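Methylenetetrahydrofolate--tRNA-(uracil-5-)-methyltransferase TrmFO: structure, please.
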Amino acid sequence: MTDMTLNIVGGGLAGSEAAWQAAEAGCRVVLHEMRPAVGTFAHRTGDFAEMVCSNSFRSDDDEQNAVGLLHWEMRAAGGLIMEMAARHRLPAGGALAVDRDAFSAAITERLRAHPRIETVAAEIKELPRDGHWIIATGPLTSGALAEAIRAETGAEALAFFDAIAPIVYADTIDMSVAWEQSRYDKGETEAEQRAYINCPMTRDDYEAFVDALLAADKTEFHEGETAGYFDGCLPIEVMAERGRETLRHGPMKPRGLTNAHAPEVKPHAVVQLRRDNALGTLYNIVGFQTKMKYGAQAEVFRMIPGLSEAKFARLGGIHRNTFLNSPTLLDEQMRLKSRPNIRFAGQITGVEGYVESAAMGLLAARLSVAEITGRSLPPVPPTTATGALVTHITGGADAKTFQPMNVNFGLFPPVSGLKSGRRGRTDRYRAYTDRAKVDWQAWLAATAAAPVPA
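Here you go.
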C-alpha cells in the first residue's frame, strides 16, 4: 500500500503552510520542528511560523505590486498564512503587517488541532532515504542538517548574513517630537493613515547620526566567513558605508511625510517605526537591521529625535543564513535531484521574504500530494507570481550568480504591446496582475483533485 504520509522538516512559514495544504488535501502530515528542544539565535519561542525579523508581509496591493499579487494567489489557494495574517492584521498603510505573537500562536493552534497533522519536537540531522519529505528549515538550518545537505550535494551551501531590526517600547517614544502618519497618507482608514511613528531629523542630526553609525562597534565575523548580504535586508551601517546620502534615499527618506508639529519645516531625513503588536505597545524601527554591538545600538539609536529616552524590547542582531544553489540542485518539481524523495521549500531554496517562503511551502505541498496520489500536475504558469518564483529558483536564474530573490515583476514574462519605462508602469503592472490572476485560477482549477483516500 502506498505511504500517504508527508514528512515536513521545519515549522517556519514555509513548513507551516506546507503542512496545512497537505493536510487539507487529505494527507497525513508529520511536522518536525526542533524548537523548543533546540533553539536558534533568532527565535524566541517554540511556536510555528514565528516571525523573527520584521512583522510585515510588505505591500498588499494585488494590482500594482508583485508581492501583493502573491498574497492574492495564496488566498485563492486557501493559504493558512494569509488567513491568519488577515485575522491578526495591524494598521500599516498599504502594507500587510501583523501582531507577530498572536499570529504565530494562532497558526500553532490550528496546526496542532488538525486531525491529520502530528507535530514532533525533534531535530532531523540526516537526509532521509525513504518516504516523502519536504525540508523547509529556512535560513537557520541546523548545523548537522546543513552538513548532511553539503555531503549529499557535493556543493557548498551558499551563505549570506541577515540582520534583525530593534523593537522599541511605544511609551518611551517622545510624541512631542514624533508624529503618526503613513507615507503619502496611504490607507483607507484613519488607523492605516496613521500607522507609522515618524522621527524627523535636521541635516545636522542626520550627519551626526551617520558619523555615529560608521564609528560604532560592529559584530565581527569568524574566520572564513564573508558578509554576502542580501540587498533587500542590508544592515543600516552597511548602507551608510555606501555613501552618506544612501540612508536618505532608503529607509530614512523624508518623502510623503509632513511633520505635524512643524508642517512648514521639511525634515532632512525621517526614521519610521511600525507597530509590532495589536496593543500598540511595541514598534520596530523600519529598515534598521543592524550588526552593531548591543551597547553601541542603544547609544546610537537614542540619537534619533524622539528616541532619546527609548527603551528596547529587543535590540538588533546578525546571523548567518544559508540557502541552496537551487538551479543546480533542484529539479522543476522542487525535488533534490540526487534524492527525489526530498523536496525543498521556503527561504533555503533562495527565495527571500516571508511571503515568498510561504508560497514555496504551499507549492511544494501541492506537488508532494500529487506525487503521493499518483497524479501529475501541469507546470505552474510562469506568468503568475508563484510560477515566476519557482521558475527562477529551479532554472530561470544563472547558477553562477544565484542570490536570494524577492518576487518582482522582472521575473515575469513580458506582456507584449505595452509601453515601457516609468510612464507605462501603471498599465504594465496591472496587465501583469490581471494575466496572473486568470492563469492562477485556471491552474488551481486544473489541479483540483478528490481527497486522498484514508
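Notes: The longest strand covers residues 158-164.
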